[in-house]
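Translate sequence into C-alpha coordinates.
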Amino acid sequence: MADIYTASATSTGDGRAGGEVVSSDGQLDLTLAVPTEMGGPGGGTNPEQLFAAGWSACFHSAIKGVARAQQITLTDSAVVADISLLPLDGGRPGYTIGATLHVELAGLDQQAAEELVRAAHQVCPYSNATRGNIDVQLVVETS
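Result follows.
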Protein backbone atom coordinates (compact mmCIF):
# COMPACT_ATOMS: atom_id res chain seq x y z
CA MET A 1 0.00 0.00 0.00
CA ALA A 2 1.37 3.40 -0.97
CA ASP A 3 1.76 6.17 1.59
CA ILE A 4 -0.75 9.00 1.35
CA TYR A 5 1.54 11.41 3.20
CA THR A 6 4.68 11.15 5.29
CA ALA A 7 5.64 13.80 7.82
CA SER A 8 9.27 13.99 8.84
CA ALA A 9 10.85 15.71 11.83
CA THR A 10 14.31 15.55 13.34
CA SER A 11 15.23 15.89 17.00
CA THR A 12 18.76 17.07 17.82
CA GLY A 13 20.69 18.19 20.87
CA ASP A 14 19.63 16.93 24.27
CA GLY A 15 16.17 15.63 23.32
CA ARG A 16 13.48 16.80 25.73
CA ALA A 17 16.13 18.52 27.88
CA GLY A 18 16.85 21.54 25.70
CA GLY A 19 17.09 19.91 22.29
CA GLU A 20 15.36 21.05 19.16
CA VAL A 21 12.79 19.45 16.87
CA VAL A 22 12.39 20.63 13.27
CA SER A 23 10.08 19.38 10.53
CA SER A 24 11.53 18.67 7.10
CA ASP A 25 9.63 21.64 5.61
CA GLY A 26 10.68 24.01 8.43
CA GLN A 27 7.08 24.77 9.45
CA LEU A 28 7.75 23.24 12.87
CA ASP A 29 10.89 24.50 14.61
CA LEU A 30 10.73 24.18 18.38
CA THR A 31 13.00 24.13 21.38
CA LEU A 32 12.22 21.32 23.82
CA ALA A 33 12.30 21.60 27.60
CA VAL A 34 11.54 19.37 30.55
CA PRO A 35 8.34 20.75 32.14
CA THR A 36 8.57 22.26 35.60
CA GLU A 37 6.20 19.51 36.83
CA MET A 38 9.00 17.03 36.08
CA GLY A 39 11.70 19.11 37.74
CA GLY A 40 12.83 20.89 34.60
CA PRO A 41 13.09 24.56 33.73
CA GLY A 42 10.03 24.68 31.47
CA GLY A 43 10.07 27.37 28.80
CA GLY A 44 9.74 25.03 25.83
CA THR A 45 7.46 22.37 24.50
CA ASN A 46 7.76 18.63 25.13
CA PRO A 47 6.87 15.39 23.34
CA GLU A 48 3.64 14.98 25.31
CA GLN A 49 2.40 18.42 24.24
CA LEU A 50 3.27 17.67 20.63
CA PHE A 51 1.41 14.34 20.79
CA ALA A 52 -1.59 16.07 22.40
CA ALA A 53 -1.65 18.73 19.68
CA GLY A 54 -1.48 16.15 16.91
CA TRP A 55 -4.12 13.84 18.37
CA SER A 56 -6.57 16.65 19.22
CA ALA A 57 -6.32 18.04 15.67
CA CYS A 58 -6.59 14.61 14.06
CA PHE A 59 -9.51 13.51 16.24
CA HIS A 60 -11.31 16.80 15.63
CA SER A 61 -10.93 16.24 11.88
CA ALA A 62 -12.25 12.68 12.26
CA ILE A 63 -15.33 13.98 14.08
CA LYS A 64 -15.95 16.56 11.35
CA GLY A 65 -15.50 13.93 8.62
CA VAL A 66 -17.83 11.39 10.26
CA ALA A 67 -20.43 14.10 10.92
CA ARG A 68 -20.28 15.18 7.28
CA ALA A 69 -20.61 11.58 6.06
CA GLN A 70 -23.61 11.04 8.34
CA GLN A 71 -25.12 14.40 7.33
CA ILE A 72 -24.93 15.68 10.92
CA THR A 73 -24.63 19.43 11.35
CA LEU A 74 -22.28 20.52 14.12
CA THR A 75 -22.75 24.10 15.29
CA ASP A 76 -19.60 24.16 17.42
CA SER A 77 -16.98 21.61 18.44
CA ALA A 78 -13.63 21.23 20.15
CA VAL A 79 -11.31 18.43 21.20
CA VAL A 80 -8.91 18.72 24.14
CA ALA A 81 -6.36 15.91 24.34
CA ASP A 82 -4.75 15.31 27.73
CA ILE A 83 -1.64 13.15 27.37
CA SER A 84 -0.16 11.86 30.63
CA LEU A 85 3.32 10.44 31.11
CA LEU A 86 3.05 7.39 33.36
CA PRO A 87 5.57 4.99 34.89
CA LEU A 88 5.35 1.42 33.63
CA ASP A 89 3.45 -1.04 35.84
CA GLY A 90 5.26 -3.30 38.26
CA GLY A 91 8.17 -0.99 38.91
CA ARG A 92 9.73 -1.75 35.51
CA PRO A 93 12.04 0.97 34.20
CA GLY A 94 10.54 3.24 31.58
CA TYR A 95 7.35 5.08 30.87
CA THR A 96 4.14 4.89 28.89
CA ILE A 97 1.40 7.38 28.13
CA GLY A 98 -2.30 7.59 28.83
CA ALA A 99 -4.83 9.75 27.04
CA THR A 100 -8.13 11.42 27.76
CA LEU A 101 -9.93 13.02 24.83
CA HIS A 102 -12.43 15.64 25.98
CA VAL A 103 -14.88 16.28 23.16
CA GLU A 104 -17.23 19.26 23.25
CA LEU A 105 -20.13 19.21 20.77
CA ALA A 106 -22.92 21.74 20.45
CA GLY A 107 -26.25 21.05 18.83
CA LEU A 108 -26.47 17.30 19.56
CA ASP A 109 -28.07 15.33 22.35
CA GLN A 110 -25.74 13.28 24.56
CA GLN A 111 -26.47 9.91 22.90
CA ALA A 112 -25.95 11.23 19.36
CA ALA A 113 -22.75 12.99 20.44
CA GLU A 114 -21.36 9.82 22.05
CA GLU A 115 -22.19 7.76 18.95
CA LEU A 116 -20.43 10.31 16.75
CA VAL A 117 -17.35 10.30 18.98
CA ARG A 118 -17.22 6.48 19.02
CA ALA A 119 -17.42 6.43 15.22
CA ALA A 120 -14.64 9.04 14.98
CA HIS A 121 -12.51 6.94 17.34
CA GLN A 122 -12.73 4.09 14.80
CA VAL A 123 -11.39 6.19 11.89
CA CYS A 124 -8.88 8.57 13.53
CA PRO A 125 -5.31 7.46 12.67
CA TYR A 126 -4.03 8.32 16.18
CA SER A 127 -6.83 6.30 17.75
CA ASN A 128 -6.10 3.37 15.46
CA ALA A 129 -2.36 3.55 16.14
CA THR A 130 -2.80 3.56 19.93
CA ARG A 131 -5.76 1.16 20.23
CA GLY A 132 -4.88 -1.65 22.62
CA ASN A 133 -1.52 -0.07 23.45
CA ILE A 134 -2.48 2.67 25.91
CA ASP A 135 -5.41 3.58 28.12
CA VAL A 136 -7.69 6.03 26.26
CA GLN A 137 -10.70 7.68 27.87
CA LEU A 138 -13.36 9.47 25.81
CA VAL A 139 -15.28 12.21 27.61
CA VAL A 140 -18.17 13.78 25.68
CA GLU A 141 -19.91 17.01 26.67
CA THR A 142 -22.82 18.60 24.83
CA SER A 143 -24.34 22.03 24.95
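Note: The longest strand covers residues 76-87.
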